[in-house]
Amino acid sequence: ERSLLGLKELAASEIESILDRASHWDKQEEKLVPVLASKFVANMFFENSTRTRFSFEMAEKRLGAEVLNFAAAASSVAKGESIYDTVRTLESMGIDAGVIRLKPEGVLAQLAEKVKVPLVNAGDGNNEHPTQALLDLYTMRQSFGSLKGLNVSIIGDIKHSRVARSNLWALQKLGANVTFCAPDMMKAPELEIHAPYISIDEALKADVVMMLRVQLERHDKGIDMKADEYRKRFGLTVERAAKLNPSTIIMHPAPVNRNVEIDDAVVESPASRIFPQMSNGVPIRMAVMERALLL
Ligand code: CP
């Protein structure tokens, strides 16, 4: 039984084995393969989610697990109960694993020390979102075969992005070159020693152009830059997308602010992998839940 808290501490061989196992599940024609029958999994979302929550549930159900869904707003958290007490409550009822999304940073690591069942990180503040990065790597591997030597630009709100951090750690372990591009207010200075910040024109020369959502809800006082100015300076507009190398792919973890960080017409253009990313979330999470409960 194994937790998945982040990719920073995970060996390249472990990441590769999850990607390979996801490929096995991706090729599986049977929709239901109940290897997790009689395992009880709680999806505990203390922060909103569409893709991650539903693809974990899809993955768990495809593997035959019994699924319990917990939403903070409809629980005793709304009466002030702590995250720790909530997780311990579900653990005492007999869950075999927990999938958890949290806003405050540092809480997941503390929880993992106190809780005995495996925990899977479904988004941890600004820190890590490991299954998102795994599905991103899987999507890149589908397009390019290997990640070694691949040039990946991550563009946008790096500061608040757990997606950028998990991708940075995992991509570098697997031999890809990562660069960042962001307005000053969205830079994460502590990451500068790991990946350089470059201009938007340079960033768009990469093999993979990963656009990030401007996370308005995580900016203390809102952002100083207006949406149309952000789009003009850092957005993947139709004009910029037309100048990309023909083999370049466009990614975005979604939800998308259409016509802010990426133009409406670019979201579903042939170079876009945004919807395949969502599809790939299911086999990746099947591999992660199998690893948590069986391996
Ligand atoms: N990409 C992602 O984590 O989306 P949700 O917030 O909808 O889960």
From TrEMBL:
Pfam families: OTCace, OTCace_N. Residues 148-290 form the Aspartate/ornithine carbamoyltransferase Asp/Orn-binding domain. L-aspartate binds at K79, R162, R213. Its EC number is 2.1.3.2. It comes from Paenibacillus provencensis. It catalyses: carbamoyl phosphate + L-aspartate = N-carbamoyl-L-aspartate + phosphate + H(+). The keyword Ribosomal protein does not apply. The gene is pyrB. The lineage of its organism: Bacteria, Bacillati, Bacillota, Bacilli, Bacillales. Residues 2-142 form the Aspartate/ornithine carbamoyltransferase carbamoyl-P binding domain. The keyword Transmembrane helix does not apply. One of its GO terms (molecular function) is aspartate carbamoyltransferase activity. Keywords: Pyrimidine biosynthesis, Transferase. Pathway: Pyrimidine metabolism; UMP biosynthesis via de novo pathway; (S)-dihydroorotate from bicarbonate: step 2/3. This is Aspartate carbamoyltransferase.
